[in-house]
Amino acid sequence: MLIKDKVKYLIEKYDTNCPFEIAKAMGIYIEYENLGNVLGYYSKHFRVPIIHINENASCKIQRFICTHELGHAVLHPDTNTSFLKRHTLFSNEKIEIEANSFAIEFLLPDELFTDQTNSYFTIYDAIEANGIPPQLVALKNIDGKIFIKK
Prior knowledge:
Residues 23-125 form the IrrE N-terminal-like domain. The protein is of the alpha+beta class and 150 residues long. The protein has helices at 3-14, 19-25, 59-75, 94-107, 111-114, 123-129, and strands spanning 29-33, 38-45, 48-54, 84-85, 141-142, 145-146. The chain has a single domain, classed as Arc Repressor Mutant, subunit A (Orthogonal Bundle), CATH 1.10.10. The protein is built from six helices and six strands, in the order ααβββαβαααββ. It has a four-stranded mixed beta sheet, with helices on one face. It has a two-stranded antiparallel sheet with strand order 5-6. Helix 3 (59-75) packs across helix 4 (94-107).
């Protein structure tokens, strides 16, 4: 199953596009902690999945962190992930790219861009509104179009 399909399945199954609500419904605990320069990470202790989020991050960034870590919980459930730091957010590791792709597909559904009611709304407006680092925009693919910031 493709990442985009897994995202759609979760949103339909739990009837919400809130990553915090989906995590709760899946039995994943969310811990807010002072993590210094670490944004967040996913861990599993004694079969209990936990998303750790830096309590000092803005609400928009916390939403992105939760979605990224939810991606790890769904795609890599038995892997304790490395810390998501500001400078490692753009890692070339396969699991980090997959978690970032999950977050992008979750927070930026295709319908957001195919609805023509607001022709002035851009992908860059959407990433700003969702706390998504602009460097990750290239992971979004709509109808074969990949977005690359010039």
